[in-house]
Amino acid sequence: MSVTITKADGTAEFFKVEKLRRSLRRAGADPHEINEIVAEVNKTLYDGVQTQEIYRHAFSLLRNSRPPAAARYSLRRALFNLGPTGFPFEKFLAKLYEAEGYTTKTGVTLQGNCAPHEIDLAAYNEEHSFIGEAKFHARPGIKSDLQVAMYSYARLLDLKNKKICNADVCGIGEFWLITNTKFTSTAQDYGRCVGLKMLSWDYPKNNNLHDQIQRAGVYPVTVLQNLSASQAETLIARDIILCRDILEHEAVLRHLHLPKRKHEALMQEARLLCGQK
């Protein structure tokens, strides 16, 4: 029997079990775990169920069987929890591209041909450079629309022939519009038409934001189950953005005043998520 689910933006569609299976595979769950979780989720489905409810149920089941996989599965929610401002998301993107071999800058002001522009992200390596606009949203269902795409393209036009560093490769030829949610279809069509680079949680189909994060193994501290929201906020304020930052700067945890047992559990979770013993 087909079940209709309610998506974060309020629209409805039929439940597609392969989407759930794919997200569980990406998180690292094995085939046996996936089959068990899907069977349990299927028992609780009903017409109109919200995708968030399906997510919470699957996550709780995965967390009980394999905590690191559960953390990866909760990645999208963890990006929302980087808020409420967009600055931590900008810093996270900088860390992501540093893991890909780029030198990055955030909050840079560049003078265009006609106006100054505050750039969320600038990145360059020996072969490539780009600047980016980070559109952060604190909840699902909010999409970056055509107006945002048109504004970004106008900025690219004004900044063409400018540079983000002194090397020859640092000319601004690419402008990336990056969001942690999604784009409207009209925004995507416009971006393809004018050549604007666009990256969202699921766009483009291959090498989207989710794929890049998983490939780089770069996870925000908000993904850790042993951290409360306020504790994660304390770390982010001290520029501890990634799980691996905790491993490299363990002393910063003193600001959380954790009991020894909680401290050790947090470090163990971070090590497992980052592939360390």
Q: Point out poorly predicted stretches.
A: none
Work out the count of structural domains: 3
Compute the number of helices.
12
Question: Which CATH architecture of the largest domain would you pick?
Answer: 3-Layer(aba) Sandwich
Distance between the termini: 45 Å
User: Given the C-alpha coordinates, what overall shape results?
Assistant: globular
H/E topology pattern: EEHHEHHHHEEEEHEEHEHHHH
Helix content: 40-55%
CATH uppermost class of the largest domain? Alpha Beta
Main beta sheet, described?
Answer: 5 strands, mixed
What's the layout of helices and strands?
Layout: E1 4-6, E2 12-14, H1 17-27, H2 31-44, E3 49-50, H3 51-65, H4 67-73, H5 75-80, H6 87-99, E4 103-111, E5 116-124, E6 129-135, E7 143-144, H7 146-159, E8 175-179, E9 182-183, H8 185-194, E10 197-199, H9 209-216, H10 229-237, H11 243-248, H12 260-273
Parallel strand pairs: 1-3, 6-8, 7-9, 8-10
Antiparallel strand pairs: 1-2, 4-5, 5-6
Q: What can you see in these coordinates?
A:
The protein is 46% helix and 16% strand. The chain is α/β, with parallel strands linked by helices and 277 residues long. The protein has three domains: 4-73; 87-216, Trna Endonuclease, Chain: A, domain 1; 219-273, Orthogonal Bundle (DNA polymerase, domain 1), CATH 1.10.150. Helix 1 (17-27) crosses helix 2 (31-44). The longest helix has 15 residues, at 51-65. The model has no long low-confidence stretch (mean pLDDT 91).
